[in-house]
């Protein structure tokens, strides 16, 4: 029997949210997966996923348990991080509508608005053209998703949806970014981990975690 080469060790921040879904996708793509709950769990990681869930709870727990500063340090040190939905909010430098006292980890120079597409009942699915990530349209599910209101010049917009999707912008024109990358940081407003469409995770692993295939 030939042993398969071990995949990169990727953490999934596991205090709250859809942790198991991300773990399944990452393992399916050959990564070794570690749930991250403490600073020690960050040791030796090649990448980290911040899942969807509820950003205000994730924020509160991560500060209460003392892991937030280590996460920020890892971001500053260049660890590749992928945030989906609440994870995008955690990565954003600025939250336009935080709950009282809510903070983000930051790192990604964007401003996000939480729940920008409406409430749970306004959840929607769509197919996005994301040429950098996939040749096929990407299946994206939006659940109380954040929108990117501002992105600095350093931020590459990978995908957008019409602004008419926004709760506040039903009559507005233009596009609103929903997938962005800034160097080692990747974030999507939507949840690719629940659709069976693995293209964003594959992009994260192949292009950001192990860009030389190492
Ligand atoms: N609205 C949630 C928040 O503020 C995010 C929802 C999600 O991750 N599906 O964190």
Give the uncertain stretches in residue-range form: none
Largest pleated sheet: 7 strands, mixed
Beta-strand content: 25-35%
How many H/I helices?
A: 5
Kindly state the mean pLDDT as a whole number?
94
Task: Indicate the topology.
Blueprint: E1 9-13, H1 19-28, E2 32-36, E3 47-50, H2 55-64, H3 68-76, E4 81-84, H4 86-91, E5 92-95, E6 108-113, E7 124-128, E8 138-142, E9 147-151, E10 156-162, E11 175-182, E12 185-188, H5 199-209
Parallel strand pairs: 1-2, 1-3, 3-4, 4-12, 5-6
Antiparallel strand pairs: 6-9, 7-8, 10-11, 11-12
Bound molecules: glutamine.
Give a structural overview:
By secondary structure, the protein is an alpha/beta fold. It has one domain (9-209): Class I glutamine amidotransferase (GATase) domain (Rossmann fold, 3-Layer(aba) Sandwich), CATH 3.40.50.880. It is 21% helix and 29% strand. It contains five helices and twelve strands. It has helices at 19-28, 55-64, 68-76, 86-91, 199-209; strands spanning 9-13, 32-36, 47-50, 81-84, 92-95, 108-113, 124-128, 138-142, 147-151, 156-162, 175-182, 185-188. Strands 2-1-3-4-12-11-10 form a seven-stranded mixed β-sheet. β11 (175-182) and β12 (185-188) form a beta hairpin. The protein is globular. The mean pLDDT is 94. It binds glutamine (GLN). Residues 52-55, 85-86, 89, 114-115, 143-144 line the site of glutamine (GLN). Glutamine binds at residues 52-55, 85-86, 89, 114-115, 143-144.
């Amino acid at each position: 029997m030939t042993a398969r080469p071990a995949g990169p060790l990727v953490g999934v921040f596991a205090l709250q949210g859809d942790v198991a879904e991300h773990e399944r996708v990452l393992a399916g793509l050959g990564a070794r997966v570690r749930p991250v709950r403490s600073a020690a769990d960050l040791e030796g990681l090649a990448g980290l996923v911040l899942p969807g869930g509820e950003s205000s709870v994730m924020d509160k727990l991560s500060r209460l348990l003392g892991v937030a500063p280590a996460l920020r340090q890892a971001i500053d040190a260049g660890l590749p991080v992928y945030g989906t939905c609440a994870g995008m909010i955690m990565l954003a430098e600025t939250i336009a509508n935080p709950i009282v006292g809510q903070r983000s980890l930051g790192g990604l120079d964007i401003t996000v608005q939480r729940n920008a597409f409406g409430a749970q009942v306004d959840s929607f699915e769509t197919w996005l053209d994301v040429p950098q990530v996939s040749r096929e349209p990407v299946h994206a599910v939006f659940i109380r998703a954040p929108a990117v209101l501002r992105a600095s010049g350093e931020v590459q917009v990978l995908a957008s949806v019409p602004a008419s999707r926004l709760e506040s912008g039903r009559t507005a024109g233009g596009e609103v970014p929903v997938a962005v990358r800034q160097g080692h940081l990747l974030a999507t407003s939507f949840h690719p981990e629940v659709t069976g469409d693995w293209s964003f995770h594959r992009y994260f692993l192949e292009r950001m975690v192990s860009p030389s295939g190492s």
